[in-house]
Specification:
Chitinase A, domain 3, single chain, alpha/beta, disordered C terminus
Length: about 170
């Protein structure tokens, strides 16, 4: 994070999300047409009375999902700023980092740190308890966070391929 509390991301990461945003905007235009078409088809097939809402309901659900994705991306763009990490900070966890974490329950997690709208169980979202605990931390840092009123602890083993062993070796050379 920068001094204004914004998450620093690369131009490449920003462009990826901007392309996704633009794609959702196009899908939304199609969804509006689908809702109108479904409504007209249902109305015509039933003579204007007792419209069967199944096709219309499906079209509206699809439309609402797209609207929600666009809103999440709007929140994403409010929270990020494009910039470069400081030289030597490649082992600091930020949005888009690939991390390996050893938890106290012996579980090893290999995941990418992502924004909330990416729903993949193999990712860590920045607003999750674990995401909040690791953001800005370095290789070798101890972490702790709460899940369902249970404290979980762990250690960050690797960030973007930089492993804890390599960090230890480089410290010995100093």
């Amino acid at each position: 994070m920068n001094k204004n509390g914004k998450i620093v991301i690369s131009q490449e990461h920003f462009d990826k999300h901007k392309a996704l945003y633009d794609d959702y905007k196009l899908q939304l235009a199609d969804a509006y047409s689908e809702v109108a078409e479904s409504f007209n088809n249902e109305r015509a097939s039933h003579g204007g009375d007792n419209i069967e809402l199944s096709a219309l309901t499906i079209a509206r659900v699809n439309q609402n999902q797209i609207i929600n994705r666009i809103r999440l991306l709007d929140k994403f763009f409010e929270r990020v700023v494009v910039g470069k990490k400081i030289q030597g900070d490649k082992d600091v966890i930020s949005l888009g980092s690939n991390v390996t974490i050893a938890l106290s329950n012996k579980e090893i997690i290999d995941a990418e740190v992502v924004f909330n709208f990416i729903s993949d169980p193999n990712n860590i979202t920045i607003d999750s308890p674990m995401g909040k605990a690791i953001l800005g931390k370095r290789v070798g840092s101890n972490i702790e966070f709460m899940v369902n009123e249970k404290e979980i602890t762990g250690v960050i083993l690797a960030v973007n391929g930089n492993k804890i062993e390599e960090e230890t070796k480089s410290n010995k050379k100093r």
